[in-house]
Fold each of these.
Amino acid sequence: MRDNRKKEVIIIGGGLAGLACGVQLAKRGVDFEILEATDRVGGRVRTDIVDGYRLDHGFQVFLTAYPAAQQLLDYDRLQLRPLEPGALVRCGDQFSSLLDPRRRPASILASALSPVGSLSDKLRMARLSRDVCRGELDELWEHIAQPTRYRLPGLNFSDRFIEQFLRPLLGGIFLDPELQTSSRMMEFVLRMFAEGDAAVPAQGMQAIPQQLAERIPTDRLQLKSTVSEIEGTTIRMTDGSQRSADQIVIATEGPAAARLLKIDENIPWQQVSCLYFTADEAPLQTKQMILSGETSGPINNLCELSTVAPEYAPAGKTLISVSVLKSDVPAMELHEPVVKQLRSWFGEQVDTWSLLRTFHIPFALPEQSIDRMQTVIKPVQRAGMPIVCGDHRETASIQGALSSGIRAAEAALGGLGDAG
């Protein structure tokens, strides 16, 4: 007689990878269960509602060109609010707009005249955007890889353009101000920006995992269910109970997966601090990302989120996110130096702003250095071991999490004798 605790597949982790895996299994009629340790799905993609403001756990954007997202998500239901392509760059004592002329042809003259970089830099940027869009996406993973910090000078970008625009842009995406990230990842991200929008869902980034969760039967998703150990096909819970499954999928963060697998796999992480401010008015009324091209001050990038998505703030209020990468200042002491830099940008109006919350996220993104990205698409299963998925198995991105979850479902189906 089958144990009523036994499932065909048990997925440990209700982040994007685990949910993607669950969606695929639900479509195939598999008897599965998702065990999520926290009180909600989404993993690092979370949104808190504080006094009517939607605060994502760290500033995040969704790139609509992600192939796995196009396969799994209903974009209309997400009510995506796109950012304006390009960026506003703070250089000296002014903000200079740098738009993407491929996406906004009318901006060609304005972008050419922008003091951010030379005309040659902008032509090289256009050429790079064109080149990374050639061929199939998988072909990017075969390109020669080197740290982005060396790849950019090799493409003949000027030091000024790198420091004022590319370092804060790419550093903010990878949470890597030293740009040690593999150039393959840089090319992947630039392709995604070129082929689609960077956007936020109207109801916050958590709308993405929530939509996936809605496609999974409610009795298949168990919250506040923490796994302590795996022995063969048996799962032991911290409450003392046990479960078993024909196939086990570990869809946790890399360190938790290594613990459950009982292997020594040290995956370095990038960190970020995000400060959310509320104001009566947006200082620039822009939907562009604002980058710091300055060499001093803690701020890397800023976004007027409620200008992009009015749903992020109560009516008549503005929500501003400020991202700080590696800093010598402790996270809880960032307020004063951040406000000092903001005041130098926007003047005394900053004194009327209120700090809503500071998120310090020490495990924000897996590191994507040359060593980590030698094999970009990593196997989801090793001989005799559970299936493993998550963005640490592919690119550290929403695409990587969703895609690895799809691959994990295919592996689980194959193990159940349903490879079709």
Note: Residues 68 and 396 are 14 Å apart (CA to CA).
Amino acid sequence: MTPRRPNGAGAFPKAVATPAPAQPDPASLYAALDLGTNSCRMLIAQPKGSQFHVVDSFSKSVQLGTGLESSGRLSRSSMARTVQALRICKGKLEKHQVARMRLVATEACRRATNAREFISFVRHETGLELEIIEPEEEARLAVVSCAPLVSTRTEQLLVVDIGGGSTELVWIDLSAVPRHDRPRAIMRLHGGFHPADNPFPAARVVDWISVPLGVATLKEQFDDVEDDHARFALMSWFFEENLADFSPYAAEQAKEGFQIIGTSGTVTTVAASHLGLKRYDRTKVDGLRMTSAQIDQVIRTYLYLGPEGRRTDPRIGRDRHALIMSGAAILQALMRLWPTDRLSVADRGLREGLLYAQMSADGVLEDGPF
């Protein structure tokens, strides 16, 4: 049977080349939303050089994980509070006409038996598609966000992200990377902790761990201990016990060339308290280096204030006063374990990592794609 030829042309039409996919517009807006155990936070930003410029933001304590430790489920009231916050986020995304976004949920949704039901509820009520990410990706993105704070003198790096429901620790060996390229080598980890062959000098992830204890979950574990000082000590030692499987190096490490970067509301609150800020100022906090003695002094002040004093202290804030001691217990344990007397404070984390990863992959940063 003779094949049918269209339009009587006597020949098949010439193949039309598939148009190349449109390149992302460097002026377009990107969004990153981080729904954690305690907070719902979002950034909307525009690429600017090798960084980005924040156009709009949102942050609210929704306490999604309240009661999760005992029930294993997200409560109706927690889900309702969270959806109210997500409606505000949806309004901001529509107002700015954001097309490129990642909206992620972390530990509370990883652990809750009714997480799928919650994700469907969010989709139905707001139209937003939340994505539950694995601990490794959460840790990786927190590391990427801290790249600008990595010193060119750093050979061994520990990045700590203290969340509401979990704490991620990543130990990175930068000794094989030329000094000038060390921050950029951290940025390249957005594609994975163990990337395939790469022509660039590589940062080597020696070990990482996600401890299922954050400021909210650790607090719930010891809510029945009435004495403030005893509760703090128990929380700190309990967290340290949960780090037994994290052993990047068996031998002692030299202080020289070692850097710890801490990213979390706990770390930035301790920094703000140290600086005596009654009104939070990110420009003074992000990148600040604190000594162990300065951190210990702030923690001693918190213990001296007691629960009521912390509640009314403007440097702590009403949203954070109930969780600051569990966060401080984690921080104290970390500073006790590793060979440094300084901590670099990062007012950045998962949202910034999500933005960097999207923009780098799209090639809209000056030094990207990484």
Note: Residues 1-21 have pLDDT under 50 and may be disordered.
